[in-house]
Amino acid sequence: MSDREVVFLSGVRSAIADFGGSLKDIAPTDLGGIVVAEAVKRSGVKSEDVGHCVIGNVTHTDRRDMYMSRVAALKGGLSEATPSLTVNRLCGSGLQAIVSAAQLLLLNDCDLAVLWWSRIYVSCTLLGTNSSFW
Prior knowledge:
The chain has 134 residues and is α/β, with parallel strands linked by helices. The chain has helices at residues 28-43, 68-75, 93-106; strands at residues 52-57, 84-87, 113-118. It is built from three helices and three strands. A three-stranded parallel beta sheet has the order 2-1-3, sandwiched between helices.
């Protein structure tokens, strides 16, 4: 049993838009970078002190989404030395991101972790086609 306690130091909510709406031209990794940077800023910690970045993602809409946590971590100002993990458990991706980050902290793998979860449907294709609607 760990003597460590997991606490949230800050919270940031990203924008919400309709399918094909105002966010359709913003890559999920760009939005993730903004959220990571703002969460670190609000927490008052130094970005170089963050020991891990965990991001849960449901639907890949861009080729960079497979590495969403890594791309968002770098865009958010985290160090190149900061490990990153992208998890996909469909509707459970957000909860899995929390669990995975908490495990990293409780197992003493890091002292600070950034986590975010993404459900980007605003620009995904439907029915497996390559067509778009705008």
